[in-house]
Amino acid sequence: RCAILCFRRIVRREGRMQHWRVKRLPTLLLAVLLAAALLGGCRPAFPTGKFAHSAADASRYLIFYPDGRWEGFLDGNLLTFGAYTTDGDRVTFETDHQCQEAGAPEPVTYTWAFTAETLTFAPNGEDACAARKDLLAGEFRRSQKVICGKSARWR
């Protein structure tokens, strides 16, 4: 703080215009850094919530929770569940209950895309778990979230 005050005194001696520039410099730097953070290096966030299969098979749906859990349903019955992590446009299914019971190796990574409220997955390499591969095939449309009391319920 003392160094800044001494610097300002020196600048004042050189003229009022110089003092104005030094005084506004931190604000200008902050604005430039904020713009760079917002525009440069932005990664899309993995969408969470309920996603129903958009084909005739709308009884198949997925739920992704913000805490890294996911669930897969068929005809309203829980088919599988597990944990996931994301890195940019890649989602790694760390665990999958149905695939573990079938003896398929874990984890597996998929590339995801989310445009116009539609979520799609493409495997990075081969997914040894056919059930998961079938479950994630196709397009999923975001469903409406209904808040009931303190907890979120999905329809």
Describe, in plain words, how this protein is organized in 3D:
- The protein is an alpha+beta fold and 155 residues long.
- The protein contains four helices and ten strands, in the order H-H-E-E-E-E-E-H-E-E-H-E-E-E.
- The protein has helices spanning 2-14, 16-39, 97-102, 130-136; strands at residues 49-53, 60-64, 69-74, 77-87, 90-96, 108-115, 118-123, 139-142, 145-148, 151-154.
- An eight-stranded antiparallel barrel has the order 1-2-3-4-5-6-7-8. Strands 9-10 form a two-stranded antiparallel sheet.
- Strand 6 and strand 7 form a beta hairpin.
- Helix 1 crosses helix 2.
- The protein is elongated, with a radius of gyration of 25 Å.
List the helices and strands and how they pair.
Blueprint: H1 2-14, H2 16-39, E1 49-53, E2 60-64, E3 69-74, E4 77-87, E5 90-96, H3 97-102, E6 108-115, E7 118-123, H4 130-136, E8 139-142, E9 145-148, E10 151-154
Antiparallel strand pairs: 1-2, 1-8, 2-3, 3-4, 4-5, 5-6, 6-7, 7-8, 9-10
Task: From the structure above, extract its key features.
155 residues, alpha+beta, eight-stranded antiparallel barrel, two-stranded antiparallel sheet, 32% helix, 39% strand, disordered C terminus
Low-confidence stretches: 146-155
Order of helices and strands: HHEEEEEHEEHEEE
Determine the oligomeric state from the structure: single chain
Please, how many helices? 4
Give the fraction of residues assigned to helices. 25-40%
Strand tally, please? 10
Q: Structural class, please?
A: alpha+beta
Largest sheet, in brief, is:
8 strands, antiparallel, barrel
Strand content: 35-45%
Give the strand line-up of the largest sheet.
Answer: 1-2-3-4-5-6-7-8
Shape: elongated
Radius of gyration: 25 Å
Q: Give the overall average pLDDT.
A: 76
